[in-house]
Amino acid sequence: MVLHFGKATGIYLKTMPFVLLRMGIGLLLGIVSIVYFGVIGWLAWTFVDAETISGWVAIVALLIALVLFIKAWQLLVKYVLYLVKAGHIAVIAHIVQTGEVPSNQISYGTGKVKEHFTEASALFAVDQVVKAVIKQFNRRVLSFSNLVSFVPTLKQIIEFVGRAVAIAASYIDEAIVAYMFISDEENRWKAAGDGLVLYAKSWKPVLGSTLLIVGGMYVAALVLFLALTPLASVLSGLSTTFELIGWVVVVGLVLTVYSGLLKPWVKTVVITTFLIEAQDKTPDSKTRQEIENRSEKFKELLNRAETEETTTEQSDQDSPVTPA
What we know:
This protein is mainly alpha-helical. The chain has twelve helices and no strands.
C-alpha cells in the first residue's frame, strides 16, 4: 500500500486559509453557544429563584431553547458551514489535479461549489446518498464477521475493526465530492456514481491509509488531552469554580485542535489518496453492476442520474433556437 501522507500534508499547508477560516468559524460558534446557553441558564435560574416561574416551566423553557438551538445549528451546517467545507474540498481537488494553488482560494472554492450546484442543499442531498452507498459497500466488505461468530474473541476484534472502518469511511464521501469537482461529467448524480465505482476499484489503499491516519488522529488528541490535564489540576487547588474553568479550557483547546487542525488534515489525506489511486482507473459497467446488485442506495443514485439527464434533455429541446 502506497501512502501519500507527504504530498497530502503539503497540500494541507497550502490550503491553510481555508483551515484557518473553518477554525475561526468554529471558535466563533463555540463562543456564541456558550453565551447563548449561559444567558438562557441565567434567566431560568433568576426567574426560578425569584419564584416568578416554577421549576417545571424553567425546564420546558430550557428544552425549547435547546430545540431552537439545534434547528438553527442544522440550518447553519447545511447552508453555510457545508459551503465552506465543500469549497475547501474543491481547492484540494484542484491542487491534486493541477499542482497549482488558486490565487484567491476561498473565492475559487466557493465559486466552484456554486458552479456545480445551484444551491448548497443540492450538494447536501448528493452527499447524503453517497454516504449511504459507502456504508453499504464497506459493510459488505466486512460481512465475513458473521462467518467467525463461533470464535467470540475473533468476532469482537472484527467488530471493533468494523466500527473503526465506519469512522474512517465517514471521510471518504468527501473524496467522492472532490472527484465530482474535477470530473468532466455535468450530471452531478452520474459524477457521484462514477466516483463510487472508482472507490470500489481502489478501496483497499484508500480505506487502509484512512484507518491509519484516523487512528493516529485519535492518539494525537488523547496525548494532547493528557498533556493539558495538569492545567486543570493546578487550578483545582484554588477553588471548584477555577477547576471547572480549567477543564472547560482544556476540553476547548483539545476540540479546537481536533476539529480545526487534525480533521481537515485527515480529509486532505483521504482526498489526495483517493484521487491519486483513481486517476489511472475508469468507471466500468461490471463494477457498477456489482455495486448496484448490493446497494439499494446506489440504485437510487443511478435513478436520480437518469432523471436529471432526462430533465436536462427536455430543457434543451424546449429552449427556443435563436435564428442566425
